[in-house]
Model the fold of this input.
Amino acid sequence: MPDIQEKIIVKQVLSPATIEREYGLSGGQWHHGELEMDQMFLLRPVSGATQYSTPIEKLYLCGAGTHPGGGVTGICGHNAANKIKKDIKNGFKK
Done:
């Protein structure tokens, strides 16, 4: 699209400080945590609170801070719901 610049009506650049201030996302991380090796895959959001379960019985996480993380896709909620169904079937036994 050689004429893309003429098609753009508005531009907005958000710094991490602005994202944190305006949207309340810690550190300005729209992924709700850095997508670095220590917070990826089964380590999301932190070790000990992975696979949608937490150390608190019957408390589950399903936001963008969980695996696969980032964006608003609904996949985290879907995966958390499947984990809850499995735990209900097993009587919430760990």
Remarks:
- Residues 75-89 form the longest helix (15 residues).
- The chain has three helices and no strands.
- The radius of gyration is 18 Å.
